[in-house]
Amino acid sequence: MITYKESGVNIEEGYKSVALMKNYAKETLSKYVLSGLGSFGAMIEIPEGYKKPVLISGTDGVGTKLEIAFKTKKYDTVGIDCVAMCVNDILCHGAKPLFFLDYIACGKLDANVAADLVKGVSEGCIQSNASLVGGETAEMPGFYKEGEYDIAGFAVGVVEKDKIIDGNKIEEGNILIGLPSSGIHSNGYSLVRKIFTDLEENFKEKPIWEELLKPTKIYVKPIIELMSKISINGMAHITGGGFIENIPRMFGNKKFTAVVDTNSYELPEIFKKIIEKGVDKDHMYNTFNMGIGFVICISKEDLEVTMNTLKELDENPIILGHIVSGGEGICLK
């Protein structure tokens, strides 16, 4: 008799992984989650106080940064990246994250590796006040190589309809504030892996892989706090496409130019290292976050409150530039 296990799918290992994952997921659940873990669908109540709530969703993955996790066998941080890539995106429209689901695929399931991946997802959800309400683990022998995993996620947040941030309030003279990244985050790793072929290469007295696996910073808590004090006109999560593609996305259908002073802050050492390796600096602003993971657009009169609030929350806000009329999109100085 041929069994499912003989075809390469180990159901018992799947049961073990689910049991381990549940322990991490339970830590994230809010009072608005109405269903138990393991049900066919997750039920979440929209928090009280909203008059016209709008749900905002986003989905993303970690990309080829995962290969560094495979090679170093360190799996407990890339789950944070997965959450960050999703919740930072929906945050750009003013959405407060409600819940998150993950998807993990592999060739051969190792329950402990899968649990480490979900451990990171759980930590990301805790950092963003989102409930990890479910997910899927797919074992696909012959499709993925043994020892390799893929992870993606899906986030849903809520915002009051008249509080949606879509760029319509942006005006000439508005100020751009940047929040520092924690490192490269989760974009540009196809290039990074070509540059850093020796993961044990020394970088700041540590192997370079430690820097490359730093998880993406989650900006939810400081931005939600800032939104309670001022009206933010636009926001951008600096992901693939860097400054050049992402900052203009906050404008919506309006024609503006973001004038960005690239000398307004010190370029982090990891990006200097990439330049030393032969990558053109101008090209990098269209590939990496260059040390700025999130950008907000505010009115001049809100500058003092914004800077003080963010500093009180242990952020290091940087005045990056300003907005001018005209459809150039972005001008790097």
From TrEMBL:
Entry GO CC: cytosol
Gene Ontology BP, a term: adenine biosynthetic process
Location of this chain's protein in the cell: Cytoplasm
Superkingdom of origin: Bacteria
Pathway: Purine metabolism; IMP biosynthesis via de novo pathway; 5-amino-1-(5-phospho-D-ribosyl)imidazole from N(2)-formyl-N(1)-(5-phospho-D-ribosyl)glycinamide: step 2/2
Residues annotated as domain PurM-like N-terminal: 54-159
Catalytic reaction equation(s): 2-formamido-N(1)-(5-O-phospho-beta-D-ribosyl)acetamidine + ATP = 5-amino-1-(5-phospho-beta-D-ribosyl)imidazole + ADP + phosphate + H(+)
EC number, UniProt record: 6.3.3.1
Keywords: ATP-binding, Cytoplasm, Ligase, Nucleotide-binding, Purine biosynthesis
InterPro entries: PurM-like_C_dom (IPR010918), PurM-like_C_sf (IPR036676), PurM-like_N (IPR016188), PurM-like_N_sf (IPR036921), PurM_cligase (IPR004733)
Cross-referenced Pfam families: AIRS, AIRS_C
Residues in PurM-like C-terminal domain copies: 171-328
Primary residence: cytoplasm
GO molecular function: ATP binding; phosphoribosylamine-glycine ligase activity; phosphoribosylformylglycinamidine cyclo-ligase activity
Similarity-based family: Belongs to the AIR synthase family.
UniProt name for this protein: Phosphoribosylformylglycinamidine cyclo-ligase
UniProt gene name: purM
